[in-house]
Amino acid sequence: MEDSCQCKHCYEHFHGANSHNSSANVGVGQQSSKECAVRVRDVCFSYQGPEVLHNISFEIPEKSLVAVIGPNGGGKTTLLRLLLGDLRPRFGKIEIYNQPPHKQRNRIGFVPQQINFDNQFPITVLEAVMTGLIGSRIFGGFSKSDKEAASAAIKRVGLEGFEKKRFSELSGGQRQRVIIARALANDPDLLFLDEPTANVDSATELELFKLFQELAKEKTLIMVSHNVRVVVSHSTHILCVNHTAALHDLNNGVDVDTELIPLDNVGDLKSFVHEHTPSHVNHHMEALYMPHKGEKQDY
């Protein structure tokens, strides 16, 4: 069984229940009073072939911790690249703080699964974190304020005192914290994370999620994850993606509209169910044949 969502919320979004006047309402819910960090409207995308994503709509309030879940090949990575501005939609519109993603790069941070530094290269933790500032520098070299910003980011992730330690000497969990600090060095308002706990043990994973919760008090975090049981108890929202999408607003680990229930492992994967209702996120083929809702984009 694949990561999916079978719930009344997804069912109503797909079938157009009266409680949802339009797809623009998906994911807004009780958080609409907050400033919108991410707004996606009727987005479709394809790589010169069948559409990977079709009629995607949701809004993410600022200072949210959003976990993106779904099956492999369902479009999670593509959606992440669209939100980062690396790709642009065929139809529809994406806004980051009311601007296209490519115009808000200075407000965005990105944490990849891992960064491959050569173990033979004697880069220190401080130097590794400062590489996250290179993109914002027109001329080479780092200033005193750059070093202070990097040191502050290192302290923020719990590695104060590790500045001069070699990156190659760190444990897997410590390396992941350095990668997060690297993304925080520019003090972004919005932080994207691609499976940030994929290469750490369960104890370190829980520690990192506690860090993410602390960061979400000041920033908006959107992360791709496969560990449903952990993210449902730590996130403010769950974004289910399988060529289409539905955003669930959580309250202390429970969806306020649909009461999502995490299941035990089924093989290597996990799933959500609710009242055994059909879900367009799980049963997405019919949704892919619905007409485009957004305006076609010409680039």
State the main characteristics.
299 residues, single chain, three-stranded mixed sheet, 13 strands, alpha/beta, seven-stranded mixed sheet
Quick structural overview:
With 299 residues, the protein is α/β, with parallel strands linked by helices. The protein has helices at 8-15, 76-84, 125-130, 144-156, 172-184, 202-215, 228-234, 285-288, and strands at 5-6, 36-46, 51-61, 65-69, 91-96, 108-111, 190-194, 220-224, 237-241, 245-251, 254-255, 261-262, 272-273. The chain starts with a strand and ends in an 11-residue tail after the last helix.
Structure description:
The structure is a single chain. By secondary structure, this protein is α/β, with parallel strands linked by helices. Helix 4 packs across helix 5. The protein is globular and about 55 Å long. The strands form 3 sheets. A 7-stranded mixed β-sheet has the order 6-7-8-4-9-10-11, with helices on both faces. Strands 1-13-12 form a 3-stranded mixed β-sheet. A 3-stranded antiparallel β-sheet has the order 3-2-5, with helices on one face. It starts with a strand and ends in an 11-residue tail after the last helix.
